[in-house]
Amino acid sequence: MAISFEIIHKDIAGRIGKLKVGERTIRTPALLPVVNPHLPLVTPREMQEMGVEALITNAYIFNRSTEFRERALAEGLHAVLDFDGVIMTDSGSFQLSVYGEVEVTNRDTLEFQQAIGSDIVVPLDIPTPPGTDRETARAELAVTMERIREGQALFPEAHLAGPVQGGIYTDLREEAGAAVQELGFTFCPIGAVVPLMESYRYKELVEVVLAAKRGLSPATCIHLFGAGHPSMFALAVAMGCDLFDSAAYALFAREGRYITTHGSLKVDELAELPCACRVCRTHTAEELKKSPDRERLLALHNLYVTLAEIARIRQAIQDGTLWELVDERCRSHPRLLAGYRELLKHAPELEVQDRASKRRFFYRGDESCFRTEVLRYHQMIPRITLGERVLISFDGRELPGFDTVLGFKPPFGPYPPELGETFPVGQSEIPEYDDAMVRSGCAGIRSLMAAHPESRFTVRCGAAWATVVREEVPGAEVYDEQV
Fold first, then answer.
1. Where is substrate bound in this sequence (predicted)?
2. Is 125 marked as binding a ligand?
3. pTM tops 0.85, yes or no
4. Which of 47, 178, 265, 323 is deepest in the core (most CB within 10 A)?
5. What does the pLDDT look like over 405-417, one tens digit per residue?
């Protein structure tokens, strides 16, 4: 049976979905913990009991292992790992990215992954790191595409992933996405992005992922290779990523690092354990530091936190509050904030995928003015029917002599009374007016004026905002009596 992906709920470009792989199904967004059979701080069976529905392991390691190779061939991955969910295997591309070469061919790794019963098989794609020149990136992309086609030809019935490469070159990423889509793939990992995340280059990460998605179908399930820290999951989901694989829970534990949703802390510097997971509620900070089982306990905590963030994101998508979560998470680090602002620059393409109605709109600063809901409202404004003389009132009070009276709710702008209780105007919470939100609202007034050149507009704003309104809406009469 083929891989299929069903989208259940949407918010921004994020999706709650069902990824069906053969007879097994994964709820998305989902985390695939990385499992090294030689160093399991948390066993796959324990992961499954924690709610993990899929994991990823390295076929290259299994293939080179004197301990596990023959067992995997004889018993299959699910029996060796004691895991009933979906198992995805990396082809050896990780080793290729680290060491520059691997002692295996594309055909070898594809045949081995099939033989050990991998649920999702990955070709030996070429991970092009940042800093690679365009000519090399294009040549490596051509090799990757050749290997993907080879995989399809060799194993037409396999659950084959279609990796999207192209380095940091957005045109190559888009080209690669389109090429993979043309081959009919439903499941596409975006590769070679770990160096961007390790160096906190989230702005470029957003550019790369959105470029790849422009080439792919909106119905394609997207796996972001190597995205392991929960602080950036909300941003990645908002871009349209559905699956993440993480070794961070174990790697950080070995380094004595305690993961939170806003970063990681050195456990030796903690006086308290600010978490509600089972590990943190059954140990004090001092007990955790001194425990002979410290690495394993830290790995369990890190995995609990990571899985909880995935659940939090799924709930935010269901509620239509993903923007608020992205805003909250991305303010934990300046580079994440840069990624968030880059994402907002792509609001026009995100708006097409976003849902029309949501539970609420919380204004959280200047960035909120560029959200998809504001853009969509400004696109809708020209459809408002007007008379000859139009009053837009900041405080809702009327003046005599007008055919149409509209309210004003920044950052959206003017609205007729009939829309006062509908989304987004009626479900938006804003603080006292600030400069950014009023200027955004004035952009809505300009849209309305452009659509109705036959009408005359007066804005009742009071002295506090008269200067801003005159700057932003030069064609309107400004009534600046104090309101």
1. 125, 192
2. yes
3. yes
4. 323
5. 999 999 999 999 9
